[in-house]
Amino acid sequence: MRDVFHEQLDAVFGDLATICGQVETAVVQATKALLEADVEVAERVISSDEVIDRARVEVEEKCFELLSLQQPVATDLRVVVAALRMVTELERMGDLSVHVAKIARMRVPEVAVPGEIRPTVARMAEVAGDMVHRVRQIIVDRDVSAAIELGRDDEIMDQLRRASFTQLLGDDWAHGVEAAVDIALLGRYYERIADHAVSIANRVVFVVTGTDPRAVEA
Amino acid sequence: MRDVFHEQLDAVFGDLATICGQVETAVVQATKALLEADVEVAERVISSDEVIDRARVEVEEKCFELLSLQQPVATDLRVVVAALRMVTELERMGDLSVHVAKIARMRVPEVAVPGEIRPTVARMAEVAGDMVHRVRQIIVDRDVSAAIELGRDDEIMDQLRRASFTQLLGDDWAHGVEAAVDIALLGRYYERIADHAVSIANRVVFVVTGTDPRAVEA
């Protein structure tokens, strides 16, 4: 049987997985709002962010309680601090989804993403959403090999971002400055969501193995 | 005389102030590289970031030592965790300065910022640099009223960012997509630097008073 500290820590990681699921919904729905110019979906993403913010505060309180009452040292201490950092990153990922939803809302009834660059943006969104989906499962299973694999997929996002710039800055771009600025910022938001997913996966590796797969920071 | 815990905590806050000074240099120099298309200055900002990264790791280790050996509870515990968060934010501000320097380097020998929008970008950079400068002093002095004042100045950055979009998206914009995309991303980077400065200032308020001036997160 696990001791009180580890039971409470498991509860915290359960909460992190739940929040990660909420973030996944935010990313997927923000993308839907973006690609379909759906203002209601955009509004829902924006207003739901407060659920994630509240959940973060609760996890932080649980972590402080764990630190205060259980006084963990060595690896246990670092695991609680890792949980605190993971929840901060999840909250940021929620904020970034809100930024995507706000660009969608700003352009309604137009779609912010012109047809010819839609496949690239849709793919970025898909990669980001998939990374969030997988990191939730990585938190649940404490799956080190899946976490290390996720880190490698970061390169795909970099390639997509470069591809989007090639399109935006090419002679064929006929959609003007506004659409280009939207796409550049959207690319930045999806890239940051992916970065945070990788960082969280690395923290799971640390939680399980006690060593960082690389120097990670959010 | 202060006890060992508070002496060590003071040392950590001294380190935070030092790192904040390094971040200020990074912001100022990245801006210089940007506005003067100075590739050497850009390279220096990019390579110096590793100094900030190393300093962050050292502060983190000191914080873990404090938590492990001194086992602080209640407010003391929260102050150490606040210090851990502050150093994470300072490191991000360094990264954001590197992003600015990389845009500068990419456009050399051209200046990435066209003349007519230069005053707006220069003002954004100045506001961000000034906020970093002030937050360093706020860390040194634990100055609550200066910290609260800093929070109010965030609005200036929002106004500048809106002004930059008005210029980019106006009919008079004659510098094409590439420059517009650069300016939009630069605006985002300076805005994030300012956000982090406000967040750090709020954490100082918490460290001194035990209460957050508002729900803050980085």
Automatic annotation (TrEMBL), chains A, B:
Its main location: cytoplasm. InterPro entries: PhoU (IPR028366), PhoU-like_sf (IPR038078), PhoU_dom (IPR026022). The keyword NAD does not apply. One of its GO terms (biological process) is negative regulation of phosphate metabolic process. Residues 20-103, 121-204 form the PhoU domain. One of its GO terms (cellular component) is cytoplasm. It is found in: Cytoplasm. Pfam families: PhoU. SUPFAM superfamilies: PhoU-like (SSF109755). Coiled coil: none annotated. Keywords: Cytoplasm, Phosphate transport, Transport. Homodimer. Belongs to the PhoU family. This is Unannotated protein. It comes from freshwater metagenome.
